[in-house]
Amino acid sequence: MFSRDPSVSIKASASSLCNNLTVLSSKEKQSLTYGVVHKAFVCITTVTKGTVVNQKQVSCKGEGAHSSSAVLQAKWCELPDRTVLVITSVKGAQMFETDGSIMIFWQALGESKEGVYSHFARGISAVGDKYICVGTSEGGIMVFDIPPRGTAVKLQETLTSHKTAIFSEDSSVRVWKLSADSSPTMEMVFQQVIADTQLCGARFTDLSGDSFGVTGYDLAEIIMFSKK
């Protein structure tokens, strides 16, 4: 169903993090932009018609002007009126314009509770027409109200969620087909092992589901697959 295509080179290797790949598709520019976390940076690579045309790094700034925080996830959130690049770290959540050039919002996590060893934000999703949700290590979900333009982002509320992590890790790529019937079913339609690679991210390049990319820990490329 899928076969391997030429890989996309990135500026630095992928960190060993869950969901370490985000993709933004632009039909107008006929381009695909990939984002991969490497330590305190998000490596952004833009590909147009199969050729890498631009590479840059976006850093997640800490409390000081020259300090950086370890990044745990990056994702483009596409809303009807705006697309925002969200970066989460051990300090909190930051939001940028689509290309990462301008930071529009910064939400600090504050001090961790006594006895809490790990304190971070991770888990990003666009919800509805104007909301972006970000999870925290304390089990909360921060809900942000995103304006169509400008920097007037508002923390609407913080919801309480589960506190148990869910995780799986191996070297296999699997594609599942979900039915939309009254009795939903799942069917595995593709599987391939990426030898000697600790996979850490996978994402379809667009809503058609015709191609997807996979990242691996310490791998300075995005492994691509497409339907043939």
From TrEMBL:
Superkingdom of the organism of origin: Eukaryota
Domain WD repeat-containing protein 54 beta-propeller: 1-166, 168-226
Gene3D superfamilies: YVTN repeat-like/Quinoprotein amine dehydrogenase
Name of protein: WD repeat-containing protein 54 beta-propeller domain-containing protein
Organism of origin: Pocillopora damicornis
